[in-house]
């Protein structure tokens, strides 16, 4: 227990090897100061999120571009800060969790940037959070070499990727650190520990403290992040404007505030990313009770080429380039496979996805696996020529309206029994993996993470609520969904060895997909009940 200055700081999680190097009194005091300064505003913004979702759900509020910020959108005169060192060329970005092996592999993958993920790809066990910070601490100091028991050596090579850390979203708490008895914002813990330990080291090494900001719902949440950056830089005596943040546009509400988000963060902004999976989740969540026009088809049919998804990505590129910001593409879920046919399909699908993005003007894109770095690089190389980005392509031809963003029915397609069963099967497998500490998993040849799993469980809820019918006229009722759940549970159990947490996964799925109300996130109550091992 560290007791310094004004705060009573307790660590309630179990200790681990070298945890004390991250959880130093000074680092904890820094996090406590952040919490003291910003916890209240975070709480208010989360309350407003809930109120707004209710207004949208009941039809009291129609989503639209905000009248009160029209001036910001209309003004051609402002731009974000120029790209910081290491972020000029972002043609390939690899994402992944921060365990030790993945850290070395991601840095050596040949990608320009590594998104070191505490969000969608990380199960936020106390061990994963502190160990992830340790791995980043060591990697930044080039002090991470290790050899496995089988003799494979891991060492950072020449020209590693630029590290961009993604703290957890505003909705999550970290219960293993308590300040004056209360748990902390997980965002402030992840940001604060990383910034405190590494900002100066990164700057000295010609890089900087760079972040991806997940799951923002509006520009006021961006303003909060900007104020956190100002405060943190000031506390450590680091020049204002050193931090760089790329914001994921991955909620339907944020899609209406892209300009405003960049404006709020303009001296710290580095771009926007099209976070497609959470975006689809957000569309389902916000319109889950809006009837058939907002019911999406089977998850596999909601591709990036359906009109409402194209509207969002096209608007993102246009908005970014007008403001001198990088537009970064998202994650195709296809990953390399040992099965040659599945592997060929995966590479072809990823290539098509990256070709669409590069053709649309994105400056780079994400891959989930080192094996996919060359495909993405090849596609962007061929479009970029000698340039590091496509900032010069202003996309003035793009004209996206609120109706285009909300034209969910444009997805077309159908809901099938196989689609319902697939969602249940994937959700059970993913939640089981998450409960066992792995936040990104290969399931049926696809990358699954917290965002893709949210889609799977939300769709089932929405289809039941809307009595959605299959082609033969059968409506999906709760009873039918429970029958499917029973079958899928047995089939997954037969497939997995002992030691899994399928019973807990089933309980979480039942609560978050089959309940009367649609919970905002799977991860919030599941964390409190199952991952939190606070003393
Ligand atoms: C919606 C969103 O937010 S998308 C962003 C969040 N999601 C992610 O970041 C997913 C990242 N990807 C992954 O976690 C993994 O690729 C998975 C889980 C999908 C598949 O992982 P695996 O089954 O281990 O893949 P595979 O066995 O083919 O791995 C081969 C090697 O590549 C490494 N590898 C795979 N993916 C990554 C990655 N993203 N970063 C670094 N190394 C990786 C593995 O560690 C393994 O290394 P090794 O040969 O030294 O043992
Ligand atoms: O974070 C990315 C997403 O697609 O969600
Ligand atoms: Mg996401």
TrEMBL record:
CDD domains, per database record: malate_synt_A
Start and end residues of each Malate synthase TIM barrel domain: 162-407
GO cellular component, one term: cytoplasm
Catalytic activity: glyoxylate + acetyl-CoA + H2O = (S)-malate + CoA + H(+)
Domain Malate synthase N-terminal: 10-69
Gene3D superfamilies xref list: Malate synthase, domain 3, Malate synthase, domain III
Span of domain Malate synthase C-terminal: 415-528
Gene Ontology molecular function, alphabetical: malate synthase activity
Top-level taxon of origin: Bacteria
InterPro entries: Malate_synth_C_sf (IPR044856), Malate_synth_sf (IPR011076), Malate_synthA (IPR006252), Malate_synthase_CS (IPR019830), Malate_synthase_TIM (IPR001465), MS_C (IPR048355), MS_N (IPR048356), MS_N_TIM-barrel_dom (IPR046363)
Keywords: Acyltransferase, Glyoxylate bypass, Transferase, Tricarboxylic acid cycle
The protein's annotated pathway: Carbohydrate metabolism; glyoxylate cycle; (S)-malate from isocitrate: step 2/2
EC top class named in words: transferase
Gene Ontology terms: biological process: glyoxylate cycle; tricarboxylic acid cycle
Residues of the active site: 166 (proton acceptor), 449 (proton donor)
Stored Pfam families: MS_C (PF20659), MS_N (PF20656), MS_TIM-barrel (PF01274)
Record EC number: 2.3.3.9
Family per similarity comment: Belongs to the malate synthase family.
Protein name, per record: Malate synthase
Source organism: Amycolatopsis carbonis
The gene coding this protein: aceB
């Amino acid at each position: 227990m560290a007791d310094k200055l004004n705060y009573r700081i307790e660590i309630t999680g179990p200790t681990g090897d070298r945890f004390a190097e991250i959880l130093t009194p000074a680092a904890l005091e820094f996090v406590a100061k952040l919490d003291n300064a910003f916890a209240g505003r975070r709480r208010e913004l989360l309350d407003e999120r809930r109120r707004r979702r209710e207004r949208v759900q009941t039809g009291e509020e129609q989503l639209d571009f905000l009248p009160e910020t029209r001036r910001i959108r209309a003004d051609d005169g402002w731009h974000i800060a120029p790209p910081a060192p290491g972020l000029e060329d972002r043609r390939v970005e690899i994402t992944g969790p921060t365990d030790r092996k993945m850290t070395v592999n991601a840095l050596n993958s040949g990608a320009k940037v590594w998104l070191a993920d505490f969000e969608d790809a990380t199960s936020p066990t106390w061990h994963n959070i502190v160990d992830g910070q340790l791995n980043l601490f060591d990697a930044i100091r080039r002090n991470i070499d290790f050899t496995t028991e089988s003799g494979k050596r891991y060492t950072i090579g020449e020209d590693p990727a630029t590290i961009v850390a993604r703290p957890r979203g505003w909705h999550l708490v970290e219960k293993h650190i308590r300040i004056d008895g209360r748990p902390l914002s997980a965002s402030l813990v992840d940001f604060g520990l990383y910034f405190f330990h590494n900002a100066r080291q990164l700057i000295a090494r010609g890089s900087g403290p760079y972040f991806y900001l997940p799951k923002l719902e509006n520009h006021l949440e961006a303003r909060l992040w900007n104020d956190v950056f100002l405060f943190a830089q000031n506390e450590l005596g680091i020049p204002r404007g050193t931090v760089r943040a790329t914001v994921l546009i991955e909620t339907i509400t944020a899609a209406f505030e892209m300009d405003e988000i960049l404006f709020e963060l303009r001296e710290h902004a580095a771009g926007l990313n099209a976070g497609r999976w959470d975006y689809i989740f957000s569309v389902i969540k916000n319109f889950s009770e809006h009837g058939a026009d907002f019911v999406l088809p089977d998850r596999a049919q909601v591709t990036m080429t359906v009109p409402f998804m194209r509207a969002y990505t096209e608007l993102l590129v246009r908005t970014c380039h007008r403001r001198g910001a990088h537009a970064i593409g998202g994650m195709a879920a296809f990953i390399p496979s040992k099965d040659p046919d599945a592997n060929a399909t995966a590479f072809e699908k990823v290539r098509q996805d990256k070709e669409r993005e590069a053709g649309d003007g994105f400056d780079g894109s994400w891959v989930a696996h080192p094996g996919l770095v060359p495909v993405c690089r090849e596609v962007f190389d061929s479009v970029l020529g000698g340039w590091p980005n496509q900032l010069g392509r202003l996309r003035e031809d793009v004209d996206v309206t609120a109706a285009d963003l909300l034209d969910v029915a444009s997805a077309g397609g159908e809901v099938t029994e196989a689609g319902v069963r697939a969602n249940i099967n994937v959700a059970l497998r993913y939640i089981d993996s998450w409960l066992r500490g792995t936040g990104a998993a290969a399931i049926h040849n696809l990358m699954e993470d917290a965002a893709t799993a949210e889609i799977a469980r939300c769709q089932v809820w929405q289809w039941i609520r809307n009595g959605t019918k299959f082609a033969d006229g059968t409506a999906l009722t709760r009873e039918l969904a429970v029958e499917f759940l029973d079958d899928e549970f047995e089939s997954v159990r037969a497939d997995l060895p002992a030691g899994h947490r399928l019973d807990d996964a089933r309980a979480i799925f039942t609560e978050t997909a089959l309940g009367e109300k649609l919970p905002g996130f799977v991860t919030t109550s599941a964390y409190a009940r199952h991952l939190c091992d606070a003393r």
